[in-house]
Amino acid sequence: MQAGKPVLYSYFRSSCSWRVRIALALKGIDYDILPISLIKDGGQQLAIIEYLEETRPTPVRLLPQDPKKRAHVRMISDLIASGIQPLQNLSVLKKVGQETQLAWAQAVINSGFGALEHVLQSTAGKYCVGNEISMADLCLVPQVANAERFKVDLSSYPTINRINKTLLTMEAFQVSHPSRQPDTPPEFQA
Amino acid sequence: MQAGKPVLYSYFRSSCSWRVRIALALKGIDYDILPISLIKDGGQQLAIIEYLEETRPTPVRLLPQDPKKRAHVRMISDLIASGIQPLQNLSVLKKVGQETQLAWAQAVINSGFGALEHVLQSTAGKYCVGNEISMADLCLVPQVANAERFKVDLSSYPTINRINKTLLTMEAFQVSHPSRQPDTPPEFQA
């Protein structure tokens, strides 16, 4: 590792790590990854993204300038990072127990995606909020990947589905993808 | 209700509503409350607080000026709003089932408070981050109230305990308290 270069403690499959990897890619920030096999899940990584936004506003802004649009971005981000992800992360599913964990994960994701689809219908353009990429998009893609992992039927969420597909064509979302990380095991590689 | 006056959809006992009530009290913003008996829990209310901060920076700032301190404030806020509160909210406890819900709530709060106490030992002054009140303090007090409701032993968390007691002496935390809301039932009134 190089002195002064930021180090991301990352786990290839963690949706929280992935959010930050997308932000770093969009900001064009070179960094080292220190893989850790067990991660403290939760939404704490939004603090990293807000910090990056405040200290590195270029080349891509992750929050719009308009306060109302910023509130929309944060509302969507929080809906995912507080309202969905924590309820289906690994530590919770372990507590729930093997037999019911798939049904539990599907229930919390479906409940959250119902609310999210409704919100997006009034905020979305090409992306989650209008036609500019934002922190909300960084939260969306890893959460949709979790939904797919838990076999959630996405056909009821056409806006979520469309935005996710658009975002996955972008370089920043591809290089940060769980299938392309230094700690990705062979069976998960693209 | 008065035209132009903000309306808060609030539930007396919701820790998420309480966070926003504290922010409104600190900012000196007059508002109407529209009580709703069932609330959509989660951390979404942080988007409201960030919006208030951006549009009403006076009389009290809820985020420090320094980017690193802002990151500390958001890290602590997210630890509570994404890492603890969603795992012990009403809808999750219903899913967990009556028999195990107290043990579940205690386990997730103890796990979160262990991490939080550790963080606060390096960030706290009089309040969660240094000697200025911040969004982190708005998250702390309602979460400690939840911990008390679930009979969590707070003696292992001396920093959390001390800051909570200091904050509860402040007017903004008192007027916003669940025991003093328009929808507080008689048995919960102070």
UniProtKB/TrEMBL annotation, chains A, B:
Reactions that this protein is recorded to catalyse: 4-maleylacetoacetate = 4-fumarylacetoacetate
Gene3D superfamilies xrefs: 1.20.1050.10, Glutaredoxin
GO CC annotation: mitochondrion
SUPFAM superfamilies given in the database record: GST C-terminal domain-like (SSF47616), Thioredoxin-like (SSF52833)
GO biological process terms held by the UniProt record: glutathione metabolic process; L-phenylalanine catabolic process; L-tyrosine catabolic process
Pfam families named among the record's database cross-references: GST_C_3
E.C. numbers: 5.2.1.2
Example of a GO MF term: maleylacetoacetate isomerase activity
Pathway per the UniProt entry: Amino-acid degradation; L-phenylalanine degradation; acetoacetate and fumarate from L-phenylalanine: step 5/6
Enzyme class: isomerase
UniProt keyword Transferase, yes or no: no
InterPro entries: Glutathione-S-Trfase_C-like (IPR010987), Glutathione-S-Trfase_C_sf (IPR036282), Glutathione_S-Trfase_N (IPR004045), GST_C (IPR004046), GST_Zeta (IPR005955), GST_Zeta_C (IPR034330), Thioredoxin-like_sf (IPR036249)
Residue stretches making up the GST C-terminal domain: 66-186
Keywords: Phenylalanine catabolism, Tyrosine catabolism
Cofactors, names only: glutathione
CDD domains xrefs: GST_C_Zeta
Residue ranges of domain GST N-terminal in the record: 4-137
NCBIfam families: maiA (TIGR01262)
Family, as annotated: Belongs to the GST superfamily. Zeta family.
Protein known as: maleylacetoacetate isomerase
